[in-house]
Amino acid sequence: MTVPPEVREHGRQARTSARTDGLVPALTLLVRALSPKAPPRGPRGHAVLPKELLEEFAAEEAQSSAGASSPREQERVEDPGPLPGLAVLRPGSGAGAPTPPEWGWALAWLRLGMSERLRDACLAHLAARQSEGGSLLMQQMVKGTLADVLLEHLEIEGVLDDLADGRTGPLGPLHPAGDDRHLAGLQQQITRADRALLRLLGAHGFTADGPGAGAHASELLADAYGVTGTGTGREDA
Predict the structure, then answer these.
(1) Angle, CA of 181, 96 and 52, to the nearest 5°
(2) Tens digit of pLDDT for each residue in 74-133?
(3) Which helix (H) or strand (E) holds 194?
(4) Where in the chain is the domain with CATH 1.20.140.10?
(5) Of 149, 145, 159, whose CA–CA distance to 109 is shortest?
(6) Can you tell me the distance from the alpha carbon of 39 to that of 51, in angstroms, rounded to the nearest whole number?
(7) What count of Cα atoms within 13 Å lies in the side-chain half-sphere of residue 170?
């Protein structure tokens, strides 16, 4: 089973948007494309979505549930979002079925774009920092970590491309697109890359206006829509 072409294209668009514009615009694009009538919910009933979409979903639900209690009273318990512009919805009595697996693959594209955005921020920050008369980018440990992260990103991109095109690529035999272990492993790989970059940024990554909030929100997305199990983007050796 391959990822449907429309999901592939929406995922790739979300990746580009995440890298250039940030998480909220990219997630807005993805939700409107793949789940325009109801919040996309994970297997435990949680949803993470842009706040601007809340009213749109409330209006949709009001039209389809005449006589029922207000959607906000019935199921919309809004928590403070991990990033300005995001809302976290807890499960409630009106929560629908979990989002189909295709949402997880599109979300992996989005998270890859966010991780690349973090890498860009890391490069810019370290290039502007000086240590012992030279840029921090020239330190061997820093160069090695950035090279490792770049390889991780290229591997993740290759796995997603192979799934989208239905190929068995250079990374080895792929699990079917519906395999939960495969998706879980891919999300873990993105999270590891993000955490490696945040370690390079030090305290700057966790300041109020630093890139750590975006990385945290990206990881929260993987958790909210995540699947149990482990695995990697290719068959275990």
Answers:
(1) 95
(2) 455 556 667 888 988 888 644 555 576 689 999 999 999 999 999 999 999 998 887 776
(3) helix 180-201
(4) 101-224
(5) 159
(6) 11
(7) 5
Helix axes 5-21, 23-34, angle to 10 degrees: 160
Could you give the CA distance from residue 232 to residue 230 in angstroms, rounded to a whole number? 7
End-to-end CA distance of the chain: 22
* pLDDT score, position 135: 80
Report if pTM > 0.70: yes
Across 8-42, b (16+ Cβ under 10 Å) vs e yields: bebbbbbbbbbbeebbbebbbbbbebbbeebbbbb
Report the sign of the C-alpha dihedral through residues 185, 170, 12, 153, in that order.
positive
Largest Cα span, the chain: 70
Please tell us whether the domain made up of 101-224 is placed in CATH 3.40.630.30: no
Return the C-alpha torsion angle 73, 74, 79, 83, nearest 10. Answer: -100
